[in-house]
Design a protein that fits this description.
3 helices, about 80 residues, single chain, 2 strands, about 30% helix, alpha+beta, two-stranded antiparallel sheet
């Protein structure tokens, strides 16, 4: 999936950057609220901190100590790796 910013005027969506090799391809156009269009005031460090906090907030305790190593077993029922 490719996402590009652009503008919509007179029934025509116009990307703000050139997009090559996409003629005839179907698209989904999402209209942004004006507040969402402006650049974020986050610094890079703040953005990383926000991502780390999001990951922490979404963490789920599984009590599986080998989940990363044995993900095929738990997801697809394959035999455990040795």
């Amino acid at each position: 999936m490719l996402s590009v910013k652009g503008t919509f005027q007179n029934g025509i969506a116009q990307p703000t950057v050139p997009v090559e090799g996409r003629n005839g391809q179907q698209v989904v156009i999402t209209f942004l609220e004006e507040d969402n269009i402006s650049q974020s005031s986050f610094t890079e460090d703040q953005a990383w901190d926000a991502l780390k906090q999001l990951i922490k907030n979404c963490a789920v305790e599984t009590w599986l100590t080998d989940l990363a190593h044995q993900h095929d077993h738990y997801l697809h029922g394959k035999p455990k790796k040795t």
